[in-house]
Design goal:
Helix content is 32%, strand content 19%. It is of the alpha+beta class. Strand 9 and strand 10 form a beta hairpin. Helix 1 crosses helix 5.
Length: 470
Amino acid sequence: MVVLHNLQDVFLESSRQETFNLPTMKQNYLKIDFGNSDSKETVYNSTEPSLPFAASCIINAGINNWRRLTADNEDCKAVYEVTFNVMGSNLNFRPGDTVGVIPTNRDGEVSCIIDHLELSDVVDCCYNITINSGQKGAKIPAHVPIKSTLRHVLTHCIDLRGVVKKLFLLALSRYTKDETEKKVIEYLCSKEGSSAYTNYILNKKLCILDLFEIFKTCKPPVEVILEHLPRLLPRPYSIVNSSSMNPNEIKICFSVMNIGYNRKGLVTGWLESLINESLEDMMGNITITDKKEMVTDKKVSIYLRKNINQFSFPDNISRPMLLIGPGTGVAPYIGFLEEQLKGKERDLLNIIWLFFGCRNPNLDYIYKDKLQGFKDAGVLTKLITAFSRFNDCEDKYIQDAILSNGEEVAKLLKNGALVYVCGDVNKMATQVKESFVKCLVKFSGFTQEEAEKFVCDMQKEKTYLIDSWN
């Protein structure tokens, strides 16, 4: 539930204003007509929108098994590994590649839109969309079919959780009956309410589902929703395993967290729900390290993505490698190391360091046994860890661990090491880069400017690669 008192200040601020400077009002340009046809076909204006960075067709993959990688404890996020069955797909995937998981909006959230806009009588009827006459330059959004059903579009085509933009708010205000609610919406999209929009819409990531709960009398025609909401896009996930071990399986790992308003991530929450359905049908005792066989017959639509940033295991394993991966950022390196384990048979061993960080080694040290196995096999030269919420650990964060090994790190960098950084872009990637610069300044005699240029040149030359997400 959205906490309404979060917007009380906005109600007060808007009440002090008599008039607002509003964006230019645009007329709604879509026209929808519902027919009596039994046909449920979906037709686009030209062609169906392409999959972003697609390197394969869509595969409806079953789930062979899953396991929880973190402890079942409130002090850490749930992290799962899921194994997709891709037998017969002939996917040519390599360590560092990603798959796109094609999401659908949750049934409950679709129902919220249907109920609020009173669409139950037409939601499963076939519709036709056209442009209102006189709307010069207006186009039907490429991701909205010109012929389909509203249930299909609300479920598969538009992002119900997309952050509401100002022009959308302005359009919504026209269909809000309560004058106080209307004034608040106008204030949020006005010049005077710019700070309020940033604080209460952007920063809190409010979407149309939240607005309909807050502003009960806001009931626009469904055409307004279709005009303004963005496309529901696939979510990318790093492939954990190497195809050299099993080309018929693709593993991904993901964390599940509450993103606010009693919601979880759209795909991660759905995958966890499949896991929970599986659990309900299982018998016996379960431990977090056991693999669980799936009993659901549901499929997950996935496809292989192009590796456009070249974040992949090198063909020529001739340089040292520094792998940086806190939390689920370690995922692609499992495939790297499996590939290196295969190379061990050809005497292609090389210097590989891996820096891993998490909160507590007893709770969320994912792939601990596997990483230690790579270390014991001589595939992983050095495994360096950092634990931010563990008192007995000297290095709290990966950037601290890099500095603690600064002299050797600087030497490896100067000897042409390849650097891979995978994880949250907001802070970690920047702080890791700063740590490398500090190592070069302290142990290689570089000035600050020279060290920064050295690392920047590595990025330009694709010897310092980043795979990050928000």
